[in-house]
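Re: Re: ligand-bound prediction request (bumping)

Still looking for help on this. To restate: I need the protein modeled with pyridoxal-5'-phosphate bound, output as structure tokens. Inputs repeated here so nobody has to scroll up.
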Amino acid sequence: MDFASDNAVGASPRVLEALLAANDGAEPAYGHDCYSHRARALLNEVFECEVSAYFVATGTASNALALGAITPPWGAVFCHHQAHIANDECGAPEMFTAGAKLIGVDGVQGKIDPAALRDILSGFPAGTVRQVQPASLSLSQATECGTLYDCGEIAELAAIAHDRGLAVHMDGARFANALVAIGCTAAEMSRKAGIDVLSFGATKNGALACEAVIFFDEAKAAAFAYQCKRAGHVLSKGRMLGAQMAAYLAGGHWLDLARLANRRAAELSDGLTKVPGVRLAFEPRGNQLFAALPRPVDAALRKAGARYYEWGDRGFGRMLTLGTNDVLVRLVTSFATSADDVRAFVSAARGAA
Ligand SMILES: *Cc1c(COP(=O)(O)O)cnc(C)c1O
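Reply:
Sorry for the wait, this slipped through. Here it is.
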């Protein structure tokens, strides 16, 4: 009963088998191998255009390097207050932009509010030397609160940013979970909605350690290979990243994995809403669930061996009022979560309610 995070499990067996297969024989190093070529070709298909894609080993590297490509040291990156880049990356975005400033924007349920974005941008007129210059907007899809932007909402925020000359980044650590929940195409949820650079996550949804930084405009990627190398993210045996990404994408495997994870979250949500005293912040669409658990339920679940994080307020105050005897928790499902895990969790909760 591990609902701590979708990186608590290993890789999809198909990805591991691909790694073993790629282990045989010799291939050119540094990403010039046949597996990486294949992965880039598959990404072109997925995004229905010629993309510039670079493979890195962590989501933090992917976000920080992507932002570094579109933000000068004197720039401002606008993101939600709860964004992973602002709270969970130890200053990597600041470091890889060589000092840009992250500016938190308001919005309920982890989503940037368009009016709040317009408002904060108006406080940064271009050319004011004493202020950082607006350079980029970063959106998380899915958000850190487990919510999703629909394509229209992404397009609206991207248009506000583009009007001011900002480039738009998407932190897609859970891109696949969001995509299958919304039911649009990958191109619609990114390029066609105005995303310029995408951190395309794979690790949490079945890869071992692989994320892609994807540029839809080749010009924005002009210096990226050098930035990647300086950051130590050009893997010598680059085929190990290419092989993961190729297996992840082939035959829509990534979408199947995400559907599994999302289905488990829906089952968990169905089960928990029937437990007296348990309240969900909102009905999950992806693979993250936030719930207020009465303390006795929390204690019984812990005792039964369930793992999950207690969540600080982190913006949930406006969605869910906690009683003094409630604990706010985050529950995350993955492609490897079994229906039995979900049933056992719900029945342990019910037993204590
Ligand atoms: C997990 C996650 C990342 C990437 O984190 P790493 O631990 O560096 O791989 C980035 N953004 C979001 C929203 C995440 O949940």
